[in-house]
Structures are given as C-alpha cells and as structure tokens.
Amino acid sequence: MNQRTIQVDALESEAIFIFREVVAQFEKPVLLFSGGKDSITLVRLAQKAFYPAKIPFPLMHIDTGHNFPETIEFRDRLTQELGVELIVRNVQDNIDNGTVKEETGRYASRNMLQTETLLDAIEEFGFDACIGGARRDEEKARAKERIFSVRDDFGQWDEKNQRPEVFDMLNGKIDLGQNVRVFPISNWTELDVWSYIKKENIEIPSIYFAHKRNTFLRDGLIWSADDAVVFRDEEEEVVERMVRFRTVGDMSCTAAVLSHAVDIAKVVEEIRDSSISERGARIDDKRSEAAMEKRKQQGYF
Amino acid sequence: MNVLKIATAGSVDDGKSTLIGRLLYDTKSLTDDKLEAIEEKSKQRGFDYLDFSLATDGLVAEREQGITIDVAHIYFSTRKKSFIIADTPGHIEYTRNMVTGASTAQASIVLIDARNGVVEQTYRHFFINNLLRIKDVVIAINKMDLVDFSEEKYNIIKGEIEYLASKSEYKNQNLTFIPLSALKGDNVVSASENMPWYKGETLMHHLERLDAEDVQEETQVRFPVQTVIRPKTEEYHDFRGYAGKIYGGDLEIGDEVSVLPSQTKSKIKSIHFFNEEFAKAKSGSSVTITLEDNVNVSRGDMLVKVAEEPTITKQINATICWMDKEPLQASQKYYIKHGVNDAQAKITQLNTIIKTDFSGKIENPSALELNQIGDIQLKLSKPLLVDAYNQNKSNGSFILINPKTNNTVGVGFIR
C-alpha cells in the first residue's frame, strides 16, 4: 500500500459535505444544470461525494431556448456519460401557454422568464431541494444568501429573515410546499472554479475558450451577431473578433470578452489578471441596483 | 485554495465597511466595474468619500437604512493567501447574524472607534468571540486620524480590552492590537507614517501570517457518518462505505476504531476519495471509509479511535445564544441538531442569563430573550455523542430548531 495522505482542499471538502447533507436530509433533490462552468463543477463534486455509487439525483435544465448550441450538445453528452437522468423544461412552453410574456426591444431577454418554468417544474416533480451553482462572490445580493436557503411555496426568498446558519450544521427542516435552494460552492470564487476545472482536468463547452465570432458593440459590451435571438440595430456594425464567454447564460443577455485564451491554463491566467468582474458582462444584472435581489424574491435561483 | 475565514465585528458607524473597502482597494481586489459603481453611487448620494458599504450591503433594505442587516461574504486574495471576510451587522438586533458570520471564522477583527473607546457593543462582540473560542482576535482601533494619532488614547483602549480578557475563562486567545485609519489607509495594508510609536504589523501583514490550520485547536478524531454508500452495482457488489468528514485528527488504515453508540470495535480497512485509495486521511477531509468487519453503521453514528471516546449522554449542560423572537422558556421542547445527528430535546432548566460585559449572571430567569446568552440544561430523547465545546468545537456545539416553525432558534456550546 502506498503511504499517500489525503488532505482535501477546504472548499472541496465543504462542498462534498453539503452534497451528502442534501441527500440525507431531503426526499427529492435535483441539481440545476445549465451547462455552465459552475454547474459542471457541481456535477464533479456530486460524483466525488457518492463515488463509487452514481449521483443519486437527477439533473434539471431550465432551457430558455436561447442557449448556445455548444452548451446543449455538451449537456446531452455529459449526462449520457454519467448515466444520470436529465430533465429538461422549456421556457418556450410557458410562453406558448401564456403564463409568461416574452420581452421585446433592445434588451429583451428570457432570463427573467426562467423563474416561472423553474417553479412549475419544482411543483411538477415535488422537488424539495434544488442544488445550484450560485457563488457569493458573483453579486452583492448573492453574497447575503445562506447555503441552505429556504423558499416558500411561491419560491420566494425572505432576505430579511433568513435562518441563522452556524458552524457547518445545515438545517433542512421545511414545511410541505417549501423547498430549499442549496449552494455547495457558495464560498468559491470565479478563480477557484477555474483553478479546480484545471486541476481536475474537467471538460467544458468550447465557447469558454477564445474563438472567432461575428460580433457587434453595444453599451461597451461585445455581443454575438451570429444568433438571431440577440437584438441588433441595423446600424450596429458586425465585426469578426477573437472572443470567449466568461459566463454561459441566456444568449440574449450574455456578452463576450476579447480573449486569446485557447486553453484552460490561459483562461486561469486571464481571470487572475482581469480587472472586470464576471457579471460585468451580464446585462440582466445592470437593470437596477437590486436586479438580482428582486429576481431571487420571485423565485429565481 | 487554502482559505482563511475572518469575521468582522464592531458597532454601528465604527467603520467596518470602510475597513473592508480599504482592504479590497489597497490589495487591488475591486474590479473596475464594481469600483465605478461605487464611485457613481457615492457621487449621486452626495458623499465626500467613496462609500464602500455600497459594495457589501447587498440588500435594498440595507442601502435604504444605511445599516448592515445580514452577513455578506467578501472574497479577496493577495499573492500569499486567499481570504473570506464575513461582514457582520453591528446592531444589537442582528446579533444572531453576527454569530452566523463569526461561527465559521478562524480569526476575528473587532473594530473600535478611537473617539468612543470601548462601548456596550464592544463587550458583546468580544464576549461572543470568546464564547465561540476564536483563537486569533485583532482589536482594530480605528479612526486614529480623528484623535491626532494619539498613543495615549490607544493605550487606554488596549488596557480596557486586556482587562476584559482577564475576566474571560478562555485563555488561549491571541489578542493583537492595531491602531489604524481605515479611511486614510494607515496600518491597513501600508504601515502608517503618522504613528511612529506603533512598532507592530499592519493588519494585512498580520492576516497574511495567520495559518488557517494553526488557529484551530488540537482535538481527537471524530468521524460522524453522514451517509452510507452502497453502490449495488456489479463492480462494487459488496461495497459498504461510510461517508463523512474527519474532525480533529488523522485516520489511517489499520486504526482500531469504535463505532458509537453501539461501541462495536473494528479496524479501518480502506480510505477512499473519489476513484483513488489512500493510506491516511487528515482532519478536514470529506472521505469514505470501509471497515474490516461487517458492523451495523448508519447516519448519525460516529467512528472514533479506541480509547478516545466522547461522552454518550441523554443530558446536556450548555451555554446557549438565543436567536428567535419567541423567547426560550424552561419545559419547552425543540429539535436538537448536533453535527449530523438529530434528537428531541426538552429544556429542563434555564439556570442563568450571562451578562456580556463579563460582570456576572442573572440567576433563575423566567425566559431567555432574542440575542441573550444563558446557561441551560437539556434532556434528550436519545443519547448523543458529545464533547465539551472547549475540547472539540464541532462535536461540542449544537443548534435548536423550533418544531412548529422549523427555524433555527438557538446555538449551544456544551460545557
């Protein structure tokens, strides 16, 4: 036998502990999977938490219909390789049945509309715990959220009356109809996530790496001109640029950044030196100072 | 990814947000877009200085009222280390949120406004730091620029805190006093030219030097089983692994262990982490363990080294910090959550309320109100495996949950 010692990094160990608490404390958990780097990291951590058993809950993607094709292709391949169940629910269905109204105009996005589809799916399947990849360093309302964040049967977050969360004891007791949003990587930073992906050699969708894309400029941000869902004025000039995406949200509200990072090592380097925050390229957060808080109160994850 | 978690404490307006802003600013941790947003909002509100609380007060209600209601976690790193700062509320009514932020911290910064000296909230915050047994506490005497960088003023405050510390029963604390000006940047990241009489380190220097592992106390191994892993696949037909996190020490293949509460003895057969096996696992690792013998182990059971057993008890004496609007009264029933284990608990006695200025106790109170700290006795529906909090933090603490509301209503420290 080798004499190797395992000392798991504190953040990884904390996340694995949280995953195991979810499975022990809840009847029907689900992992919210967008195909982005944070939820991909969650999947790896879930694998580690239960290995050699399989991940004991399904993955669910709330598809806005405006996702990057590279992400969807990646999503389907990953879930097949892992042998886990993938549930997909579509925002388009809510638009078609009239429960939400599609936005129009310059800043139209389906990001907000996801909430309704998510809440419907939670009710449909009776999920009592939804595991998400939100991090406290992303945004100032998220910085305030607990690891086990209780939501009422409207999905609402009561931000002024959160349960105390002391030491690593997680209280998952809820009433019927309530659910808990669980954030195992709350304490990770963007750089932690990238460093982890590099260390673990985890595969990620190609749009995270620099590639040539037809783009145009608006409000100081770079937008993809290849996709019909991104609103563009006739006079906004299309130019081919070398870009990559730092976050993989709805195409209509996710801007690209200029980059030459073609592999993961370069991405880590670039993030380390960046003077712009990750969500600086997410137009949905710029709608008002409290955009994220408002969305969370309505049931957004 | 070794991270030092720090909690800040201090009363309202003594500059917690400014200090955190200064740390972020001077370590170049604020991104351009966030800094621009702070500049723009500060100007819009007619402030003379950059209002860094705009970066940390993430809730509408906080920005409206200009106070911090709940903990914000702020992340930054220097070349040497990564930090998480819990920016906790100063107001007395949000003490429970301060405890939330401080409970996971390895170090704490207590801010004092040099003009006002030690005030009631300082007592409370200092007391909670002692109750939690946070080993490294920095007393940051802020706004030194407003008292002419007076050494005398600094010494008076230092003396008062040292006197307080002498009355605490917790003696292993490292107290560090740093005179600073968060607004002007003296002794935060750069050494101050205005206080040549101060020979100590800057705040940043001190924090960089702290080791996240060093500030933990040495303890015996506790391995509470979170979940049993049974893959039931061809390849792992007979695999039965116990998943959990090691608290306190190292576990090695061949170690003789006792399974509690049954007290069955066995040996560690293998240690798994994902698809690798290891000979030894260290404190803090979330691993999966198998045993030589086919013993009955389930969630809430605990593996410990033989001859290092905790107390198995149905009765607990504890100090409790009450966190609910509905007061604690003797003879009430709650759920107790101790690590990953649950039981029912009845308060058999409410002995005292402890005054947070170290001036004594109120005997036989009728109730313990929100944010008060007291000594209680509990009777449990089943035996729990406990240590005293001063022996093992994670195995010596618990929370109480109100069965009617499911809210976490108190945090307890076993005596």
UniProtKB/TrEMBL annotation, chain A:
EC number(s) from the headed UniProt entry: 2.7.7.4
Domain Phosphoadenosine phosphosulphate reductase: 29-255
GO terms for MF: ATP binding; sulfate adenylyltransferase (ATP) activity
Keyword Transferase assigned: yes
InterPro entries, alphabetized: PAPS_reduct_dom, Rossmann-like_a/b/a_fold, SO4_adenylTrfase_ssu, Sulfate_adenylyltrnsfr_sub2
Pfam families: PAPS_reduct (PF01507)
Domain of life: Bacteria
Gene3D superfamilies found in the cross-reference section: HUPs
Single biological process term from Gene Ontology: sulfate assimilation
Keywords associated with the record: ATP-binding, Nucleotide-binding, Nucleotidyltransferase, Transferase
Similarity comment text for this entry: Belongs to the PAPS reductase family. CysD subfamily.
Name of the protein this chain belongs to: Sulfate adenylyltransferase subunit 2
From TrEMBL, chain B:
Molecular functions (GO terms): ATP binding; GTP binding; GTPase activity; sulfate adenylyltransferase (ATP) activity
Keywords from the named record: ATP-binding, GTP-binding, Nucleotide-binding, Nucleotidyltransferase, Transferase
EC number(s) per entry: 2.7.7.4
Gene Ontology biological process terms, A to Z: sulfur compound metabolic process
Enzyme class: transferase
Pfam families (alphabetical): GTP-eEF1A_C, GTP_EFTU
CDD domains from the UniProt entry: CysN_ATPS (cd04166), CysN_NodQ_II (cd03695), CysN_NoDQ_III (cd04095)
InterPro entries: CysN_GTP-bd, CysN_II, CysN_NoDQ_III, G_TR_CS, GTP-eEF1A_C, P-loop_NTPase, Small_GTP-bd, SO4_adenylTrfase_lsu
Tr-type G domain residues: 1-215
PANTHER family recorded: TRANSLATION FACTOR
Name of the protein this chain belongs to: sulfate adenylyltransferase
Highest classification ranks of the organism: Bacteria, Pseudomonadati, Bacteroidota, Flavobacteriia, Flavobacteriales
